[in-house]
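> call design_seq(struct)
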């Protein structure tokens, strides 16, 4: 009797401190994504992508691809387009009935529409970086150069290059 009582008490004490901890790392008592308090990056710190220029408020009509003519640009642009843009715009830029596209209202633009054909390359670059309407921006996924590569590939799809 006494032995099992001691055992029970020891077990109780051993386990009672553990209720907040879970072997599953996802469920531990730490701050979760977007949970307060959020920590700001230290002042003057630079992200691993470097200190990036902000093109959002610049005149898109004046922005030009600084990498034009770079070797392999269209190949890399196609590769990136097929990762980041296909889910909503389709491989040829005209499809907007993919399972992802159907979730959007308005539906993703047909990249061959006159309104899109009239955008300058700088305006397309801005749409890719910062999004437009309900389309999300990709500036956290793509470097400036990569966004220009996708832009060049979009122009190629539109047969403007
Ligand atoms: C998650 C879905 C989604 C993805 C992925 C996506 N788009 Fe879009 N895109 C949209 C939607 C939705 C619109 C229409 C936005 C609106 O009118 O509110 C749009 C519109 C556009 C337009 C037209 C903008 C205008 O002003 O007429 C361009 C150009 C464009 N997308 C290019 C791209 C490129 C290039 C990529 C890949 C980097 C991309 N999109 C990835 C959903 C997406």
């Amino acid at each position: 009797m006494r032995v099992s009582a001691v055992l029970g008490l020891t077990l109780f004490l051993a386990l009672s401190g553990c209720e907040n901890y879970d072997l599953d790392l996802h469920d531990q008592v730490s701050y979760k994504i977007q949970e307060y308090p959020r920590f700001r990056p230290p002042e003057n710190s630079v992200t691993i992508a470097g200190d990036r220029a902000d093109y959002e408020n610049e005149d898109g009509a004046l922005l030009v691809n600084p990498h034009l003519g770079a070797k392999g640009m269209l190949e890399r642009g196609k590769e990136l387009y097929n990762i980041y843009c296909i889910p909503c715009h389709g491989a040829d830029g005209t499809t907007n009935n993919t399972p992802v596209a159907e979730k959007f209202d308005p539906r993703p633009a047909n990249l061959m529409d006159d309104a899109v054909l009239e955008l300058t390359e700088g305006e397309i670059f801005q749409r890719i970086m910062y999004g437009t309407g309900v389309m999300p921006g990709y500036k956290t996924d793509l470097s400036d150069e990569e966004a220009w590569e996708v832009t060049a590939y979009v122009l190629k799809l539109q047969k403007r290059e």
